[in-house]
């Protein structure tokens, strides 16, 4: 019988856990001492875990096959990245689709009449619990952002519309290196939802 190609839930025993950093922020850093199952004589080992509430990313495409993009400074990378509207799942009880709608409104002043879930993916499962939910948004219209006021990096953020074909080319040749952009753009292309296949 062929092996199923899928991720499988599994929980290894945690002998102890120590908070390395925890505050009012929606992130925390902990060190877990882990054992392999059914290996009682083996030495346990430590794995550092960055707790993350998860996030959403929106590939917003208009009727001219242009993608709504942002330019935002990212301090760890020391770069102003070309990105898509995105944000944390940091509102208690908020579903990913609702969070995606909120982020598109806040960062783009846009609403969409059509939403398609693209994929959900763990960013770096060897270190963080972060899982990002990706959406394609179409049927766009400009709306008022309400009382949202950008702060910090977002206050310096600029926006632009990029033809999908040009954004795809920039992803493939390395000019755009933000992983969520690559995942959203390439997944939508592979599924035939954007570009020539969508016509």
Describe the structure.
The protein is α+β, with helices and mostly antiparallel strands and 199 residues long. It folds into 2 domains: 14-51, no CATH class; 55-198, Nucleoside Triphosphate Pyrophosphohydrolase, CATH 3.90.79. Helix content is 17%, strand content 39%. It is built from 3 helices and 10 strands, in the order βββββββαβββαα. It has helices at 96-108, 164-172, 179-190; strands at residues 14-22, 28-34, 45-51, 55-60, 66-74, 79-83, 86-88, 110-122, 131-142, 158-163. The protein has a 4-stranded mixed sheet with strand order 7-4-9-8, with helices on both faces. It has a 3-stranded antiparallel sheet with strand order 1-2-3, with no helix packed on it. It has a 3-stranded antiparallel sheet with strand order 6-5-10. Strand 8 and strand 9 form a beta hairpin. The longest helix is centred in the middle third of the chain and has 13 residues, at 96-108. The model has no long low-confidence stretch (mean pLDDT 93).
SSE topology string? EEEEEEEHEEEHH
The CATH homologous superfamily of the largest domain corresponds to Nucleoside Triphosphate Pyrophosphohydrolase
Number of helices: 3
- What's the CATH class of the largest domain, please? Alpha Beta
Overall SS class: alpha+beta
Rg is 19 Å
| First-to-last CA distance | 40 Å
Number of domains: 2
Mean pLDDT: 93
CATH architecture of the largest domain: Alpha-Beta Complex
Query: Based on CA inertia axes, which overall geometry fits?
Result: globular
How many strands?
10
- Remind me, CATH topology of the largest domain? Nucleoside Triphosphate Pyrophosphohydrolase
Unreliable residue stretches? none
Strand sequence of the main sheet, in spatial order? 7-4-9-8
Helix content: 10-25%
């Amino acid at each position: 019988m062929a092996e199923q190609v899928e991720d499988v839930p599994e929980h290894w025993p945690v002998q102890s856990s120590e908070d390395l950093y925890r505050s009012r922020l929606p992130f925390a850093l902990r060190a877990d001492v882990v054992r392999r199952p059914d290996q009682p004589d083996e030495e346990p080992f430590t794995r550092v875990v960055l707790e993350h509430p998860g996030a959403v990313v929106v590939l917003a495409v208009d009727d001219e096959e242009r993608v709504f993009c942002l330019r935002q400074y990212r301090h760890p990378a020391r770069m102003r990245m070309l990105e898509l509207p995105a944000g944390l799942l940091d509102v208690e009880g908020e579903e990913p689709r609702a969070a995606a709608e909120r982020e598109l409104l806040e960062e783009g002043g846009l609403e969409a009449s059509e939403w398609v879930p693209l994929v959900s993916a763990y960013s770096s499962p060897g270190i963080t619990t972060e899982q990002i939910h990706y959406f394609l948004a179409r049927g766009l219209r400009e709306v008022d952002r309400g009382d949202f006021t950008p702060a910090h990096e977002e206050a310096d953020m600029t926006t632009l519309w990029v033809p999908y074909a040009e954004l795809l080319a920039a992803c493939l040749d390395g000019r755009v290196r933000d992983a969520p952009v690559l995942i959203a753009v390439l997944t939508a292309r592979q599924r035939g939802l954007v570009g020539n296949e969508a016509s």
